[in-house]
Amino acid sequence: MAGILAWFWNERFWLPHNVTWADLQSTEEAAFPQAEDLYLAFPLAFCIFMIRLLFERFIAKPCALGLKVQANGPQKAQPNAILEKVFTAITKHPDEKRLDGLSKQLDWDVRSIQRWFRQRRNQEKPSTLTKFCESMWRFTFYLYIFTYGVRFLKKTPWLWNTRQCWNGYPYQPLMPDLHYYYIVELSFYWSLMFSQFIDIKRKDFGIMFTHHIVTVTLITFSYVTNLTRVGTLTLCLHDAADVVLEAAKMANYCKCQKLSDLLFLTFAIVFIVSRLGIYPLWILNTTLFELYEALGNFPALWVFNVLLVILQILHCFWSYLIIKAAYKAISKGKVAKDDRSDIESSSDEEETVPRSKTPHSTVTTNGTSGANGTNGYLTGSTSSEEH
After folding, report:
1. Can you give the residue ranges of every domain in the chain?
2. H-assigned helices in the chain
3. What is the reported pTM?
4. Homologous superfamily, domain 81-124
5. Three-state DSSP class for residue 108
6. Which pathway (predicted)?
């Protein structure tokens, strides 16, 4: 084990030439980032998750009810023992052959069976109230941490001149405000990574999970190697768009369509400018070029830049989705439903009673389109928040 640890913490990989871990040990005169500091993120992540549960129940939920956010979930499927057994024990997405067999067994037409399975899948999805509470929690956290980041960074020289990120590196003392900023951000993303498995499921689950892993790795990596100055710039830049996104979602769930549209278009502008403009020209420029000029080459530098480039690739993917949604918003006059929405819908009319294949049977319909009354997510959450 000692040999493995020695290999992993090889100074020639992690640090510039002629710098050792002993040089970065904290003293009474100056504190430096230590790897063991990051253990604090795990209990703090649990605390953040518990604060979230309390916030959603005692603050977000009363606010949602006061704003008359819909508390009921999607329409429930008609009870049917045979279909329920297939749904729970065999498949939630029956193929054509199974649909034909169930149609003969129940004397229902295939469309009614498909509709039952769609309603049954939606039945397990969260209500608009639940989604509003989640968005309000993320909005509150992102607003707090973004405000904290701006107040901290406006007092630092590297906000105005990125070359200051490398002035005196790696012998840059760890300021208490910077340490707090880093640990809280890392703890939040750890909590997001684990809570993603119990949160609202979306179609880009894999991409968001990849994003959280890259973010946690970047925060950890930059802290251990004392690349914290450029790290604070990256964190603050990413939090800016997430505040507006969560506000747009909440407006959408409250059915304030005009406000939701305005906030979504604002989010689209902020996201694209910050992630496709400022990020590569400000962050990537200083890590790829200014850092190399100041310190030369060492392996950890390239790993750090590879992670930052992966983040940029994710930015491009989400920007494509956002631009597509913004185009629909402009062409149709309102924000389109998110492609990642967790509620399935159909252009067919939803029926409360399945249609029998026999011609003399009576059919009752409610005439409500499955797409109506469904508040989908706005495109681009990172996640944001989920960056």
Report:
1. 30-67+126-342, 81-124
2. 2-8, 11-14, 41-55, 61-66, 81-89, 96-106, 110-123, 128-153, 176-195, 205-224, 228-253, 257-272, 285, 291-295, 299-332
3. 0.80
4. Homeodomain-like (1.10.10.60)
5. strand
6. Lipid metabolism; sphingolipid metabolism; Sphingolipid metabolism
